[in-house]
Amino acid sequence: MSECKVIAIANQKGGVGKTTTTFNLGVALQNQGKKVLVVDADPQGDLTTYMGYSENELKTTMANLMESVIYDAQLDTNKAILHSDEGIDLIPSDLDLSATEAMLVNAMSREFTIRNVLNNVKENYDYILIDCMPSLGMLTINALACSDKIIVPVQDHFLAAKGMGHLLKTVSRVKRTINPKLEVGGILLTLVNKRTNLSKETINDLKENYGRAIKLYNSQIPLAVKTAESTSRGKSIFKYDKNSKVAIAYENFAKEVLADDRERQKNGTSKDVVR
Question: For the chain, which end, N or C, has fewer CB atoms within 10 Å of the first or last residue's CB respectively?
Protein backbone atom coordinates (compact mmCIF):
# COMPACT_ATOMS: atom_id res chain seq x y z
CA MET A 1 0.00 0.00 0.00
CA SER A 2 1.31 3.46 -0.92
CA GLU A 3 1.79 6.22 1.64
CA CYS A 4 -1.57 7.48 2.89
CA LYS A 5 -2.70 10.85 1.59
CA VAL A 6 -4.97 12.94 3.81
CA ILE A 7 -7.28 15.39 2.04
CA ALA A 8 -9.47 18.01 3.71
CA ILE A 9 -12.66 18.84 1.82
CA ALA A 10 -13.32 22.36 3.03
CA ASN A 11 -15.07 25.65 2.37
CA GLN A 12 -16.43 27.95 5.06
CA LYS A 13 -19.57 28.43 2.97
CA GLY A 14 -22.31 25.85 3.43
CA GLY A 15 -24.34 24.19 0.70
CA VAL A 16 -21.46 23.84 -1.76
CA GLY A 17 -21.33 20.03 -1.84
CA LYS A 18 -18.56 19.24 0.67
CA THR A 19 -20.30 16.21 2.15
CA THR A 20 -21.54 14.94 -1.20
CA THR A 21 -18.03 15.28 -2.60
CA THR A 22 -16.40 13.55 0.38
CA PHE A 23 -18.64 10.49 0.11
CA ASN A 24 -18.70 10.18 -3.67
CA LEU A 25 -15.00 10.93 -4.14
CA GLY A 26 -14.30 8.29 -1.49
CA VAL A 27 -16.37 5.67 -3.33
CA ALA A 28 -14.86 6.71 -6.68
CA LEU A 29 -11.33 6.27 -5.29
CA GLN A 30 -12.36 2.89 -3.89
CA ASN A 31 -13.61 1.95 -7.36
CA GLN A 32 -10.10 2.75 -8.59
CA GLY A 33 -8.68 0.18 -6.19
CA LYS A 34 -7.83 2.46 -3.27
CA LYS A 35 -8.50 1.79 0.40
CA VAL A 36 -10.40 4.81 1.72
CA LEU A 37 -11.42 6.19 5.12
CA VAL A 38 -13.79 9.15 5.29
CA VAL A 39 -13.97 11.26 8.44
CA ASP A 40 -17.00 13.25 9.55
CA ALA A 41 -15.48 16.33 11.21
CA ASP A 42 -18.74 18.29 11.30
CA PRO A 43 -20.95 18.26 14.43
CA GLN A 44 -24.00 18.27 12.16
CA GLY A 45 -23.04 14.71 11.21
CA ASP A 46 -24.28 15.07 7.64
CA LEU A 47 -21.73 12.64 6.22
CA THR A 48 -22.68 10.06 8.85
CA THR A 49 -26.37 10.46 7.97
CA TYR A 50 -25.68 10.47 4.22
CA MET A 51 -23.94 7.11 4.55
CA GLY A 52 -27.03 5.64 6.16
CA TYR A 53 -26.16 5.69 9.87
CA SER A 54 -28.41 7.06 12.62
CA GLU A 55 -27.24 8.48 15.96
CA ASN A 56 -28.68 5.46 17.77
CA GLU A 57 -26.23 3.18 15.92
CA LEU A 58 -23.13 5.12 16.94
CA LYS A 59 -21.18 3.60 19.82
CA THR A 60 -17.96 5.56 19.36
CA THR A 61 -17.68 8.84 17.46
CA MET A 62 -15.09 11.42 16.49
CA ALA A 63 -15.94 13.31 19.68
CA ASN A 64 -15.04 10.28 21.82
CA LEU A 65 -11.75 9.79 19.99
CA MET A 66 -10.74 13.45 20.26
CA GLU A 67 -11.61 13.54 23.95
CA SER A 68 -9.38 10.51 24.49
CA VAL A 69 -6.52 12.54 23.03
CA ILE A 70 -7.42 15.68 25.01
CA TYR A 71 -7.52 13.80 28.33
CA ASP A 72 -4.57 11.56 27.44
CA ALA A 73 -6.75 8.46 27.82
CA GLN A 74 -6.35 5.16 25.98
CA LEU A 75 -7.02 5.75 22.28
CA ASP A 76 -8.37 3.06 19.98
CA THR A 77 -9.39 4.71 16.71
CA ASN A 78 -10.47 1.40 15.23
CA LYS A 79 -13.35 1.21 17.73
CA ALA A 80 -15.09 4.07 15.95
CA ILE A 81 -14.57 2.91 12.36
CA LEU A 82 -17.70 1.75 10.55
CA HIS A 83 -17.40 -0.41 7.44
CA SER A 84 -19.79 0.75 4.72
CA ASP A 85 -21.30 -1.73 2.29
CA GLU A 86 -19.94 0.52 -0.48
CA GLY A 87 -16.39 -0.46 0.35
CA ILE A 88 -15.20 2.60 2.27
CA ASP A 89 -14.80 3.15 6.01
CA LEU A 90 -16.20 5.96 8.16
CA ILE A 91 -15.38 7.67 11.44
CA PRO A 92 -18.81 9.10 12.35
CA SER A 93 -19.80 12.26 14.20
CA ASP A 94 -22.76 13.73 16.02
CA LEU A 95 -23.62 16.92 17.92
CA ASP A 96 -21.29 15.97 20.78
CA LEU A 97 -18.46 17.16 18.56
CA SER A 98 -19.53 20.78 19.21
CA ALA A 99 -18.73 20.36 22.91
CA THR A 100 -15.45 18.69 22.01
CA GLU A 101 -14.48 21.67 19.86
CA ALA A 102 -15.04 23.93 22.86
CA MET A 103 -12.69 21.72 24.91
CA LEU A 104 -9.92 22.32 22.39
CA VAL A 105 -9.56 25.92 23.53
CA ASN A 106 -7.58 24.88 26.61
CA ALA A 107 -6.12 21.61 25.27
CA MET A 108 -2.41 20.94 24.91
CA SER A 109 -1.26 20.89 21.26
CA ARG A 110 -4.89 21.52 20.35
CA GLU A 111 -4.25 21.87 16.60
CA PHE A 112 -2.96 18.29 16.40
CA THR A 113 -5.83 16.43 18.06
CA ILE A 114 -7.32 15.01 14.86
CA ARG A 115 -3.84 14.15 13.60
CA ASN A 116 -3.26 12.09 16.74
CA VAL A 117 -6.61 10.34 16.24
CA LEU A 118 -5.70 9.34 12.67
CA ASN A 119 -2.02 8.52 13.10
CA ASN A 120 -2.55 4.94 14.28
CA VAL A 121 -4.81 3.99 11.35
CA LYS A 122 -3.15 5.84 8.45
CA GLU A 123 -1.11 2.79 7.52
CA ASN A 124 -4.34 0.93 6.69
CA TYR A 125 -5.46 3.37 3.98
CA ASP A 126 -4.39 4.94 0.71
CA TYR A 127 -6.64 7.96 1.25
CA ILE A 128 -8.29 9.65 4.21
CA LEU A 129 -10.88 12.28 3.29
CA ILE A 130 -12.03 14.73 5.98
CA ASP A 131 -15.44 16.37 5.60
CA CYS A 132 -14.97 19.75 7.31
CA MET A 133 -17.64 21.90 8.91
CA PRO A 134 -18.69 25.14 7.12
CA SER A 135 -16.53 27.43 9.23
CA LEU A 136 -12.87 28.10 9.90
CA GLY A 137 -13.01 27.12 13.57
CA MET A 138 -10.75 24.83 15.56
CA LEU A 139 -12.11 21.62 14.00
CA THR A 140 -11.27 22.85 10.50
CA ILE A 141 -7.85 24.04 11.66
CA ASN A 142 -7.30 20.54 13.06
CA ALA A 143 -8.26 19.01 9.72
CA LEU A 144 -5.87 21.30 7.84
CA ALA A 145 -3.10 20.60 10.35
CA CYS A 146 -3.10 16.89 9.49
CA SER A 147 -3.82 17.08 5.75
CA ASP A 148 -1.54 16.85 2.76
CA LYS A 149 -3.87 19.04 0.73
CA ILE A 150 -7.21 20.77 0.69
CA ILE A 151 -9.85 20.47 -2.02
CA VAL A 152 -12.32 23.35 -2.13
CA PRO A 153 -15.79 22.60 -3.55
CA VAL A 154 -17.31 25.81 -4.90
CA GLN A 155 -20.91 26.19 -6.01
CA ASP A 156 -21.59 27.36 -9.55
CA HIS A 157 -22.76 30.79 -8.41
CA PHE A 158 -21.98 34.41 -9.13
CA LEU A 159 -20.72 34.82 -5.55
CA ALA A 160 -18.50 31.75 -5.79
CA ALA A 161 -15.27 33.65 -5.17
CA LYS A 162 -16.65 35.46 -2.12
CA GLY A 163 -14.92 34.28 1.03
CA MET A 164 -12.16 32.44 -0.82
CA GLY A 165 -9.61 35.03 0.26
CA HIS A 166 -10.26 34.37 3.94
CA LEU A 167 -10.03 30.61 3.41
CA LEU A 168 -6.73 30.91 1.55
CA LYS A 169 -5.29 33.17 4.25
CA THR A 170 -6.18 30.50 6.81
CA VAL A 171 -4.55 27.81 4.68
CA SER A 172 -1.46 29.99 4.30
CA ARG A 173 -1.27 30.58 8.05
CA VAL A 174 -1.62 26.85 8.80
CA LYS A 175 1.05 26.03 6.21
CA ARG A 176 3.41 28.63 7.64
CA THR A 177 2.97 27.87 11.33
CA ILE A 178 1.59 24.34 11.78
CA ASN A 179 1.72 22.14 8.66
CA PRO A 180 4.41 23.02 6.09
CA LYS A 181 3.37 20.18 3.76
CA LEU A 182 -0.19 21.51 3.29
CA GLU A 183 -1.07 22.29 -0.33
CA VAL A 184 -4.12 23.59 -2.12
CA GLY A 185 -5.12 20.71 -4.39
CA GLY A 186 -7.60 22.82 -6.29
CA ILE A 187 -11.12 24.15 -6.68
CA LEU A 188 -13.93 21.79 -7.68
CA LEU A 189 -16.93 23.44 -9.30
CA THR A 190 -20.17 21.85 -8.06
CA LEU A 191 -23.90 22.16 -8.72
CA VAL A 192 -23.15 23.23 -12.29
CA ASN A 193 -26.14 24.03 -14.48
CA LYS A 194 -24.99 23.63 -18.07
CA ARG A 195 -28.18 25.23 -19.38
CA THR A 196 -26.99 28.65 -18.28
CA ASN A 197 -23.89 30.73 -18.96
CA LEU A 198 -23.30 31.04 -15.24
CA SER A 199 -20.66 28.31 -15.08
CA LYS A 200 -18.53 30.12 -17.67
CA GLU A 201 -18.87 33.35 -15.70
CA THR A 202 -18.03 31.58 -12.44
CA ILE A 203 -14.94 29.94 -13.94
CA ASN A 204 -13.77 33.24 -15.41
CA ASP A 205 -14.30 34.96 -12.06
CA LEU A 206 -12.34 32.29 -10.19
CA LYS A 207 -9.55 32.32 -12.78
CA GLU A 208 -9.35 36.09 -12.66
CA ASN A 209 -9.09 36.14 -8.87
CA TYR A 210 -7.17 32.93 -8.12
CA GLY A 211 -6.11 31.32 -11.39
CA ARG A 212 -2.41 31.97 -10.84
CA ALA A 213 -2.43 30.53 -7.35
CA ILE A 214 -4.88 27.63 -7.47
CA LYS A 215 -5.77 24.91 -9.92
CA LEU A 216 -9.33 24.67 -11.17
CA TYR A 217 -10.13 21.01 -11.71
CA ASN A 218 -11.29 20.12 -15.21
CA SER A 219 -14.03 17.96 -13.71
CA GLN A 220 -17.27 19.72 -12.88
CA ILE A 221 -20.11 18.21 -10.85
CA PRO A 222 -23.48 18.86 -12.52
CA LEU A 223 -26.63 19.94 -10.75
CA ALA A 224 -28.95 16.92 -10.75
CA VAL A 225 -32.02 15.66 -8.94
CA LYS A 226 -30.41 12.22 -8.67
CA THR A 227 -27.80 13.62 -6.27
CA ALA A 228 -30.47 14.70 -3.79
CA GLU A 229 -32.29 11.40 -4.26
CA SER A 230 -29.15 9.38 -3.52
CA THR A 231 -28.52 11.50 -0.42
CA SER A 232 -32.00 10.87 0.97
CA ARG A 233 -31.56 7.12 0.47
CA GLY A 234 -28.15 6.92 2.14
CA LYS A 235 -26.41 5.81 -1.04
CA SER A 236 -23.53 7.13 -3.09
CA ILE A 237 -24.38 8.25 -6.58
CA PHE A 238 -22.58 5.13 -7.85
CA LYS A 239 -24.87 2.78 -5.97
CA TYR A 240 -27.96 4.84 -6.79
CA ASP A 241 -27.30 5.38 -10.50
CA LYS A 242 -23.81 4.47 -11.69
CA ASN A 243 -24.56 5.64 -15.24
CA SER A 244 -25.72 9.14 -14.26
CA LYS A 245 -23.85 12.26 -15.28
CA VAL A 246 -23.00 12.94 -11.65
CA ALA A 247 -21.44 9.47 -11.22
CA ILE A 248 -19.38 9.93 -14.37
CA ALA A 249 -18.27 13.38 -13.17
CA TYR A 250 -17.10 12.03 -9.80
CA GLU A 251 -15.35 9.12 -11.51
CA ASN A 252 -13.47 11.58 -13.71
CA PHE A 253 -12.69 13.75 -10.69
CA ALA A 254 -11.21 10.79 -8.81
CA LYS A 255 -9.00 10.00 -11.80
CA GLU A 256 -7.90 13.64 -11.88
CA VAL A 257 -7.02 13.56 -8.16
CA LEU A 258 -5.03 10.34 -8.65
CA ALA A 259 -3.22 11.78 -11.67
CA ASP A 260 -2.30 14.92 -9.71
CA ASP A 261 -0.93 12.84 -6.84
CA ARG A 262 1.14 10.74 -9.23
CA GLU A 263 2.51 13.90 -10.83
CA ARG A 264 3.37 15.45 -7.47
CA GLN A 265 5.06 12.26 -6.34
CA LYS A 266 7.04 12.13 -9.57
CA ASN A 267 8.15 15.76 -9.38
CA GLY A 268 8.53 15.87 -5.64
CA THR A 269 7.23 19.43 -5.56
CA SER A 270 3.92 21.23 -5.66
CA LYS A 271 2.79 23.54 -8.42
CA ASP A 272 0.39 25.26 -6.06
CA VAL A 273 1.10 28.69 -4.68
CA VAL A 274 -0.66 29.81 -1.52
CA ARG A 275 -0.46 33.49 -0.79
Answer: N
Strand partners for 150: 8, 184
Domain boundaries, the chain: 5-267
Strand order in the sheet with 183-192: 82-83, 89-91, 36-41, 127-132, 5-9, 149-155, 183-192, 216-222
Which amino acid does the sequence have at 182?
L
> In the 8-state DSSP scheme, what is residue 108?
T
Cβ–Cβ under 8 Å, residues 154 and 187:
yes
Residue 117 phi/psi, 5° resolution? -65, -40
Domain 5-267 part of CATH 3.40.50.300: yes
The CA–CA distances, whole Å, from 160 to 118, 172, 207 equal: 32, 20, 11
- 89-91 and 82-83: which strand pairing? antiparallel
Q: How far apart are CA 158 and CA 179, in angstroms?
A: 32
Give me the chain's average pLDDT, please.
90
CA distance 245 to 241: 9
* E strand residue ranges, 42-143: 82-83, 89-91, 127-132
pLDDT the model gives residue 159 = 63
Rounded Cα–Cα distance for residues 241 and 237 (Å): 6
CA–CA dist 172, 274 (Å, integer): 6
Question: Are the C-beta atoms of residues 206 and 192 closer than 8 Å to each other?
Answer: no
Q: Quick: pLDDT tens for 6-28.
A: 999 999 878 788 999 999 999 99
* Amino acid at residue number 60: T
CA distance linking residue 194 with residue 23, whole number of Å? 23
